Amino acid sequence: MSAGALSVEVVTGSSQESATRQEPGGALADGLPPDASAWAADDPAARMRRWTEGYAPRPGLADALMEADGTLRGGWPRFLERLARLDDREVAARFLSAERHIRDAGISYRVYGDGREHPWPLGSLPLVIDAADWAELSAGIVQRAGLMERIVADIYGPGRLVAEGFLPAGVVAGHPEFLRPVHGIAPPGGRWLPIYAADVGRGPDGRWQVLADRTQAPSGLGYALENRMVLARAFPDLFADLHVERLPGFFQAFRAGVAAACERSDPRICLLTSGPYSSTYVEQAALARYLGFLLVEGDDLVVRDGLLHVRTIAGLKRTDAVWRRIDADYLDPMELRSDSRLGVPGILQVLRRGGTVVGNMPGSGVLESAALSPYLPAIARRLTGEELRLTGPRTWWCGDPGGLHHALANLDSLTLRPAATPLRGPERDAMLAGPALDAARARAVASLRERPFDWVAQEAAPLSTMPAWQDGRLAPRPFVMRVFAAATPEGWRVLPSAFCRVAEREGADPSEMRAGIRSADVWVLSDTPVDTPTLVHASTPRIRRIAGHLPSRAADNLFWFGRYLERAEAVIRLVQAHLGVFSEAVAADASGAEGAPTALTIRALLKDWGSVSAADLSPAALAGEALSGKVVYGSALSHVLEARRIAASLRERLPTESWRALADLRDTLVYTEAWAPNEAQLFGKAERALGHLAALSGLIHENMGHAAGWRFADMGRRIERAINTCGFGLRFCAPDAGAEDLGVMLSLADSQIAYGARYLVGVSRDAVCDMAVLDPHNPRSVAYQLQAITAHLDALPALAADGLPEPHRRRALTLAATLQTAEAAAFDAEALERFETDLEGLADGIAGRYFPNGPDALRPEKLTGLA
Predict the structure, then answer these.
(1) Which tens digits make up the pLDDT trace of 745-767?
(2) Rounded to an integer, what distance in angstroms lies between the CA atom of residue 18 and that of residue 7?
């Protein structure tokens, strides 16, 4: 759908109200002011004047939009003139479409210390920088990245900088990121820093300055990519007309750089994450998907024979490179932090043997020390023969006697910062504010005198500002921009964009993402049309039809993702069946409908499943709790939320549209306690939820590659459906079942129409049992599920090469054969109960074979290959 079509959609009906409403803290808090209708006839020039009216740079601060005399800087006139061709309602509609895309794609983040997911707070306007200004900044970043590479190589190698007096030993050895076990290791592939980042802003003179180096495991690259995708989608016309530099070329070059460092020509590259609860997990998944890396956790990797391997459903497969996104001291519990559950035991030994490329190398975080800053200019002259192009605020390390004396003598005018790990949250805010109060001054002096080497003193560095959209006008707000450089086969390459954080109010510090901080895309405007990076390679790569071997953890998550979706569907169908039984009884003017045997059976089953808190609720209360209960573990909503939690760890594997379908499903089931729906409304809610489930199932079936990952997701649904159908048969397909019970059974198996077309007479127990359990042509029957499961297992890799079926496959074949030879009349309650137990055993057998369930699980480690 084009952006124009989106705009038409959002300004009609109720969407028009959404486009103009004011929401505190939301992406549209900076939407149209209440009197915007009076401005509809503005011409572009008048609109541009109104946007900038009253905008003024703050005294002593550089501003990205405007010079002190009011002149617009760089590429901003081009951008605003082009944006002003859109009227205010169209601009608001574009902003709303960006917000919708963020919601539909599930782009989110977590605040440090807060486990909740928050929608990604993307600002409405990009930061605009012209090509000449960006070229100057890029040259400084390239120089600084190369300098950092040489410094860290010296620190863990010959140590000449310390020996020659260019760098105090205390700055290195006293930093917690100096890892002694890494000393003497030559990085496989020759690079310590495959990726470098720097937080930058403009100094009071308008020139770029570095506020902090990011060498540990720089975050934000994935969010920069997501920001670009969102805004380019919302403003495709502006993006093309203004010649905004493209990003794909950088990511291709970065991937090529990592691959070139590996020994094999077709390497397996993993992105190591701490898991779904990482504050930046969403961006890690986005990067893994975009770059084609395997997203793994520490338990997915294992050291064997001096090499690093990833656990897959086909055995251990060699890992050539790891892009780590966990802190270095958690990387190897054998030699670093022994309490770490995030790393890989023995990986440092693999590095010593040159067996795996790791970026960034453990120990590179020592370069983030604020105490390094005072010595960088001299080190740059020593190592490169050049002056440092990008400097930062003047800094003094208090571990140096001269620096301590200067800090104590000028405490009121300086800011104290930790020399090592930055503080977070309120502690950081209090420290960055400077010791202005007497109590703060006393604490600062005591800390400086006791442990001076823990601190640096820094000249005040007020953050420069950029325009943010607020109440239909532009307002200056502080920002920090993180610029990335990648080591490629052709040298350092800078991303032609950045990860920008903007404060929503004056005086706030946007050094990290948290409440009150937004992100912004960064548009580098070229003077000429930019080349669209080609994806066509000069040489044909080795042809492949699957992305690679499926990690065991991903298989586990996909399997349970399917099972939870099927559990939600079963609960919804039970609710529909109960409401149907109740409504039919009411229509027949029957009394005691809630106490009818069939209704009682459904209520008891919902209670057994934990879908309701009590079986004697009113029909509406029971349906509402089973569908949307938040305090019961077995409600449809609870299962959907669990599936959504699992899906968060599968972002790089599921179709992108599936997150939207999950969000729609969740939103359909959720309702506020103030709303008291009746039975008809609840039935409609259940119908809509089943529609979203069907759409999600279709997305997975049609848009997901039918390789091992899809097979596990489909197996999870089918084994859960088979178990549920057996359970339904036990309760509604007994030998003495009445017409109402059998009708419910057909409803739960979604087979009413098929049964009516096949049998012209009324319902029969044996006929219903045959259709719901034994019919291999009915896609809802147990037999059909077993056929699909055995086909999936046949297509999955075998652990042994002797040709004999493994235990889980033998069990599946036995169950399928049982159904093929059974007759409905003989398939009684005992047989159904036994079969349900056998299906649970089959699920456990699949888990034991393929999933990393614990020390007793059958791990596929007997097959260790180089492929």
Answers:
(1) 999 999 999 998 899 888 899 99
(2) 12
